Amino acid sequence: MIERRPWLNVLSHFVLCAGVLVTALPIWITFVASTHPADSLMSGRAPLWPGAHLFENYATVLDSGLRAAGSVPVGMMMWNSLIMALMIAVGKIVISIIAAFGIVYFRFPLRRTCFWLIFVTLMLPVEVRILPTFGVVASLEMLNSYWGLSVPLIASATATFLFRQFFLTVPEELAEAARIDGAGPLKFLFDILLPLSRTNIAALFVILFIFGWNQYLWPLLVTTDESFYTIVVGIQRMLAVDDAEPAWHLIMATTMLAMLPPVLVVICMQRLFIKGLIEQEK
After folding, report:
1. Residues in contact with 229: Cβ distance below 8 Å, sequence separation at least 6, in sequence order
2. 3-state DSSP call for residue 73?
3. Banded model confidence at residue 86, pLDDT cuts 50, 70, 90
4. Average pLDDT of the chain?
5. DSSP character for 170?
6. Helix (H) or strand (E) segment spanning residue 189
7. pLDDT at 244
8. Does residue 91 contact residue 154 with C-beta atoms inside 8 Å?
């Protein structure tokens, strides 16, 4: 017998709505602050409703630049972040697929040892190996370049592990049937494994794109040319102004713009992202 308790439904909906409000309130305050002039935000009373300077503030950060706020135009920084995030996401997926494919479907000495050596690199994040990595990038003259921003972050033990685990679930009969039909390793990879991995690739792409977009420490170290600033570094530069108050209305507008690409990626790939996390499409 199912006991109906309406007050439980009311309580659960109240808790869910409260959670949404707590999560959305900082975003709303940021958006409201991006629509007001600077003097309104420095008056000591934070506005709670949008102002009349929405288009003016966003046009300033996108078109005319942010010299007064201590940074370069946001459009350029978002373009740099987009290129870096795409290079990191695509590079991690491609290299991880190749590594997992070699470990699972090729027989060679110390195959399992190679996998665990890759997996152990999870204990060595960029922050731990930052100095030798910076030295290598500098010696290769990759500072202030998209390659310098992306290549040191491309290797991914996590993605390699996930693809390896998925490839192990693929029936061996598929590989045997491909060999009988005369398909080589690359044809088996492109015609069978990659279509089966579509949802996994989509889920990883969303995660890795956001990972690349939100990078702060590495771009801060390898970029001294303003034309290669990323959006996260740009926001930090806007805050670190000398002998002046930060232009908070422009900083808030930049923050809202910085949120848009990751949100759009999640929305556009939401179906495949969820399916890749909870299903195995075979």
Report:
1. 71, 72, 76, 77, 80, 219, 223, 237
2. coil
3. very high
4. 82
5. S
6. none
7. 66
8. yes
Helix axes of 198-213 and 248-268: crossing angle, nearest 10 degrees: 170
Contacts of 246 (CB under 8 A, 6+ apart): 69, 70, 238, 239
Dihedral sign for Cα 55, 57, 58, 63, please: positive
Using alpha carbons, select from 88, 95, 211, 116 the residue that is nearest to residue 163. Answer: 95
- The domains located in the chain, with CATH, are 69-278 (1.10.3720.10)
pLDDT in tens, 14-58: 888 888 888 888 888 888 888 888 777 666 677 778 877 878 888
Q: Cα angle at 177 between 175 and 183, to 5 degrees? A: 75
Six token digits for residue 210: 């956001």
Q: What distance in Å separates the CA atoms of residue 3 and residue 148, rounded to the nearest whole number?
A: 62
The stretches of the chain forming alpha helices (DSSP H) are 6-33, 38-41, 54-59, 74-105, 111-120, 130-139, 146-150, 157-169, 172-180, 185-188, 194-196, 198-213, 217-222, 231-239, 248-268, 270-278
